[in-house]
């Protein structure tokens, strides 16, 4: 199994070693890590939508236990729960609190390369999870559109469709930031030293660009929807009174 794909990846011990290079901008590193901690600690928008989706799954899992489209919703819910359990902000904070205020080569103890590489691996895992989230959101949207066309439990379909759409927007923004953070942190890995056994497996190398490794060259493209002036392709939902949402 790939290192980034290990669910309960054991982190290296928190320790320090004497710095041996002048090529470390401590202030910039501190600012990058602080920004990362702030970003991943304040994802209440994503977690709110995840909670709404989880509640929907809990409420309707018996009613739709044999529906293939609801299995896709459960898949998205599982991915979001896994993402929440990664606690990437805590891993970044461990690095942040170990950075010294004053840095002098050969006279300052810095965090180890092992600790830094662990965070880079976790960022790879976060990127993969966010990619899986986006793909699952697309599948959920397609499935809910089909249910809307049938008109069967359309109120439930609208709620789940809207939730998946909001999750997609927030997750795409998080993925874009994850790639930027990875690119900002990667150069520091080669400047740090170790005080013990190397944590990374022999021959393991980090990709230079996380977005290329994830094969998401579309990430920087804005979503543009061309709306044609043709009523035949528009889909209307007649909002009539119905008890199917509560039955």
TrEMBL record:
This is Nucleolus and neural progenitor protein-like N-terminal domain-containing protein. Residues 4-186 form the Nucleolus and neural progenitor protein-like N-terminal domain. PANTHER family: NUCLEOLUS AND NEURAL PROGENITOR PROTEIN. GO terms for cellular component: nucleus. GO terms for biological process: positive regulation of Notch signaling pathway. It comes from the Eukaryota. Pfam families: NEPRO_N (PF14780).
């Amino acid at each position: 199994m790939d290192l980034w794909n290990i669910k309960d990846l054991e982190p290296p011990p928190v320790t320090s070693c004497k710095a041996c290079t002048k090529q470390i901008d401590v202030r910039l590193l501190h600012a990058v890590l602080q920004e990362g901690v702030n970003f991943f600690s304040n994802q209440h928008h994503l977690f709110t939508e995840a909670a709404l989706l989880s509640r929907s799954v809990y409420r309707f899992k018996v009613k739709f236990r044999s529906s293939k489209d609801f299995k896709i919703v459960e898949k998205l819910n599982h991915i979001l729960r896994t993402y929440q359990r990664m606690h990437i902000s805590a891993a970044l904070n461990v690095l942040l609190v170990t950075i010294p205020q004053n840095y002098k080569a050969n006279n300052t103890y810095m965090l180890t390369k092992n600790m830094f590489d662990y965070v880079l691996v976790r960022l790879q895992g976060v990127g993969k999870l966010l990619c899986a989230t986006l793909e699952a959101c697309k599948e959920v949207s397609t499935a809910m559109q089909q249910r809307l066309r049938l008109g069967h439990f359309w109120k439930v379909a609208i709620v789940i469709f809207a939730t998946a759409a909001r999750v997609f927007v927030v997750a795409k923004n998080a993925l874009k930031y994850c790639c930027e953070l990875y690119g900002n942190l990667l150069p520091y890995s080669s400047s740090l030293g170790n005080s013990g056994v190397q944590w990374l497996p022999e021959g393991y190398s980090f990709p230079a660009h996380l977005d290329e490794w994830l094969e998401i060259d579309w990430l920087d493209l804005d979503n543009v929807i061309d709306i044609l002036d043709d009523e035949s392709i528009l889909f209307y939902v007649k909002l009539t009174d119905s008890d199917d949402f509560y039955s």
